[in-house]
Design a protein that fits this description.
Blueprint: H1 3-17, H2 19-46, H3 51-55, H4 61-73, H5 80-121, H6 124-133, H7 136-188
Helix pairs in contact: 2-5, 2-7, 4-5, 4-7, 5-7, 6-7
Length: 191
């Protein structure tokens, strides 16, 4: 008994067994990717471009209210260091929340194309076996699965990259605006 043919059979069995889970994951990730895109569109509708509107009833109004409360609590000049620490903590919390949202999307940027590639390569083995046996229908079916998996994986990566890039720009601008607003509030004494 030769070892190589037996190892090839085992590897082919493992590879073929992974096809359905990969295809199911691709379908789930496409849905998740469009959920993230819809969430971004929803977030866009709530965002304001005007600096004052962001903090007065806009998407950053909660942060503004928290900073004003902190400034009012720490009116004593000796409390200025504590005030800076607490405002810094608020900024870190916002940054952590933004990082969490971006992290989920960045995961799809990597995993989508990887699964697409797996969905491409897995059916190529059976396609080549079909070709060698003269079974053109098996070859064609497996090639369709292979190429559509590639397209779907790239779609997941492209949409996720777009969502992550737009959100990264938004959150970076928000952090800059929040730091500036906090400095203004400290300078004005909470007025």
């Amino acid at each position: 008994m030769e070892l190589l043919p037996e190892m090839m059979k085992i590897l082919l069995t493992i590879s073929n067994a992974m096809l359905y889970p990969v295809l199911i994951l691709l379908i789930i990730l496409v849905a998740l990717c469009f959920v993230f895109a819809g969430d971004m569109i929803s977030e866009y509708s709530k965002r304001s471009k005007d600096f004052d509107d962001k903090f007065k009833g806009g998407h950053l109004s909660g942060f503004c209210g928290a900073v004003k409360r902190l400034v009012a609590e720490h009116r004593n000049p000796r409390d200025e260091d504590m005030l800076s620490v607490k405002i810094g903590r608020l900024l870190q919390e916002y940054e952590a929340e933004a990082g969490r949202k971006l992290g989920n999307t960045r995961l799809l940027i990597r995993v989508g194309p990887m699964l697409g590639l797996m969905g491409t390569l897995i059916p190529l083995g059976p396609a080549l076996l079909g070709l060698s046996a003269g079974n053109i229908e098996q070859l064609a079916n497996n090639l369709v699965i292979a190429f559509t998996s590639t397209v779907v994986g790239l779609l997941i990566g492209a949409v996720s990259l777009t969502v992550a890039s737009v959100r990264q720009r938004w959150y970076s601008q928000d952090l800059d605006d929040m730091e500036y607003m906090a400095e203004l509030s400290i300078a004005k004494g909470g007025d």
